[in-house]
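Follow-up to my post from last week.
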Amino acid sequence: MSAVTEHVEDHGLVADEADEHHVPTDRYFIKVALVLALLTALETSTYWIHIGGFATPLLLILMTIKFFMIVLIFMHLKFDNKLFSVLFYMGLGLAMLVYIVFLSTFQFFAR
Amino acid sequence: MAIIERPSLAPAVIGDEVASPPALVTPTAAMGVFKRPVSTTGWKSWVFTVDHKKLGIMYGAVALFFFLVGGAEALLIRLQLAAPDNTVLSADLYNQMFTMHATTMVFLFVMPMAAAFANYFIPLQIGARDVAFPRINAVGFWLFLFGGLFLNSAWFLGGAADGGWFMYSPNSSPLFSPSHGIDFWLLGLQITGIASLVGAMNLIVTILNMRAPGMSLMRMPVFTWMQLVTQFLLLFAMPVITVALFLLGFQRNFGAAFFDVDKGADPLLWQHLFWIFGHPEVYIIILPSFGIISEVLPTFARKPLFGYKFVVFSGAAIGFIGWGVWAHHMFASGLGPVSVAVFSAATMLVAIPTGVKICNWTLTLWGGKLWFTTAMNFAIGVIVLFTIGGLSGVTHASAPADTQQTDTYHIVAHFHYVIVGGAVMGLFAGFYYWWPKMFGKMLSERMGKWNFWLMFFGVNLTFAPMHILGMQGQPRRMVVWPSKLTGEGFFNLGFWNKVATLGSFTIALGVLLFVINIIITTKKGAKAPLDPWDARTLEWLTASPPKEHNFDSIPTVHALDEFFHRKYEEVDTADGARLVKVKTGEEVLAIEEAAGDAHIHLPSPSYWPIVLALSFPVIAYGIIFNRMLSVVGAGILVIALFGWVLEPSVADDSDYDPPAEGSGPTKELASIG
Amino acid sequence: MADITIHKSDAVQVEAAGHDEHGHNDHGPGGAHVTATGLSNNKMAMWLFLGSECLLFGGLISTYMLYRGRQGSGPGPAQVFDIPLTSVSSFILLMSSLTMVLAVNAAKRLDDKNTRLWLMATALLGALFVGGQVYEFTAFYQEGLGFTTSLFSSSFFTLTGFHGVHVTLGVVMLIALAAIIGRGRITGDKAEVVEIVGLYWHFVDVVWVVIFTLVYLIPA
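User reply:
Got it. Predicted complex:
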């Protein structure tokens, strides 16, 4: 790339050949979409099938799985350079931290 | 020798095939009516520019204007408070005055001035020719200008915002504030907020992606590092106030009940949302100035910055911990002991990285060969005054102490010491340090010294007494302090209020000298060499002012303080290894220029940023006065967006006028310096 | 669109001793400037924007969570929500993420026709989702839940309204992108532009995943 011959530590943040290789096929994406559809069906079923206090944790878990499937696979974050993950998770992490603390001051989780 | 060229289809190497251009239908050909702007001189070259240096100067000029506006508002406040039961300002006008003073100073002066320096110097410090997204850079400036003007137009259209800069509810509801002032305030801040947000994305990508070869993150100048942290803070904090402003706007204009206690609303919702933004905001205010003095102190101490890694990491630590302290602005709001204790502890924690910086700056000075230029004076002034403000801040971190101090002038003293003594003095250090580079002229050092000392004494004269006033119980945001509180003895309100007022005019005099300094320098200032201070970082490896393309050849970086290491080498002498100056800045630059790139292409100016920016105040005026106007504004917005997206970043050949017969260099050739 | 440079003759790739036709050697394949991290400017900007959007939607969601029980004398969630209907529109939006990645894959294969096809499919599904929202809100309004009825209603409509506006803007972008590709006017890396629009679209979908659970499904 340039006349610089010294090796500068990049901690995997500079793109290299490995980043370019994973190209999911259409088939793979369709499979992922089917799993997501299934999870959605499961979520929606709680409207009819009452499971009492288990509903909330289950729904939160399903929501989280769907969230990360879309982000990691559809948005390709799992296969892309780590820097993109860092940038996005900074925002996500900060939002969760700040707003959970915010709601805590209203005793939201005490109920 | 570098020439800026229009992209050409001539074969690069003799004998190569000339590829036929792709069959593009370009906007100019399609629309045929308007050519895009391409001039390099005159007012058009400023209004349609995408050059980071021009934008930086415009940011700075407008910010300076608003500084004077905010300063005038401050002087009026101080005149009102100089005597008990005073009648200079009515209560209503007083409320507007302190609201607009703070709003103008924070959002329309300090933040944009820091943006001015960021815009101008980040590309130069990292060895780049511009920022990653030059048109977005331009739209940011115009949004700032139009947003600031829009916000202040309230003065003439029924009264300015009057709920305090933090606009607590329910005071901000139409019931208590029926004029349009607050609507102007919230819409104006939304507009300038877009500028901050897109600017943050732009500068982060620029800093991460456009560094010169060899410039790893730990070889970046500290100013750039502090700006990087600042931009992340902006990126994540602006959306929070955006939410708050939307909620308030919906309440005031569409009848939503977010802060309506009668309907069951919790007034703390606003306070939380505002301060979740508001606390990172104060780090957004201070970190750029910390970055500036981290450049100035080593330069004028003739020593490298002590503990570079510590300064960098403590900046990042401040940025991170700063997210966990916001409710220290709410200690007296009824949060409950658990929340208060947690936030109190976190607030004490955030003082630590700042303390680390103070130590590092002091140790930078220790044993150095100190050169007391005006810039150096301001930088040392920051260390002294910020420490004072920081110490009073630490006392506020203790919730029991703060319960007495909150809403009194003790708090006013604290934040003015850190903002005026810290952030503003840091910006002034930047003015005196970087003026020669930006304008090719030296500001008068003699007048600069007067500027500095008047401001330094003025700050102390104005804000030191406020600690006393606060302890004696003078509340904030009260139009009068009653004569029965005048008091006796050493700590009486009457005397110290007068001192504070006198101090504010002292500051004003110092600022006036700065303005005069600018005027006389522009008229007949001494020409600046490219490296007047024998500085250390890459922005000095350019002409003064820099050429439009910054660097003839992008420098390769081998070390921190790269420019310094090209001038100085370690030589073995009888007394041991010594650093000896082997080249002047001019000589180093000449070497770079000799290896200049043959072809440099820069992004072309564009109409769309200013057009896009213009649509926003139109929409905003429409929301307040006439919804049809908003529709028109939205139309302009859509047209501008499409025009922007469809426009290539470099102008078509057909946009340039052909050179006249026998004339000299054509318009598109940059001046060869 | 990489703002800092443009190459009109991408077809000409002069490989001469590490220098391309512009006399410097910092261009990668396709003519885009090589960056210090090797990553695309535009893609990085989009991820930064999405990071900031987390704070935006987090604020709106938190406001809703705070006020969800405060319906005053007006209708509450149990009275107005139509879970089956919303499930269908959630499913539609979810599938639009699939059509979006198929569009990106087509763009990577340089298959303009299918790229535009899948982009339009995504836009259609998105428009269907918005249509569902409009229908749903109209029904709520008729059942006595207006924007200003209660804290619950204001928070609900603000949160879902912001999301709906994001979807609508996304639909506009998708259609515009399909049209621009159709006229051959994208410069630079076409697949990357589609990918970046895709990132925005998936994010809007993922926000709905959160909203659907927290607002509709989790019992009050």
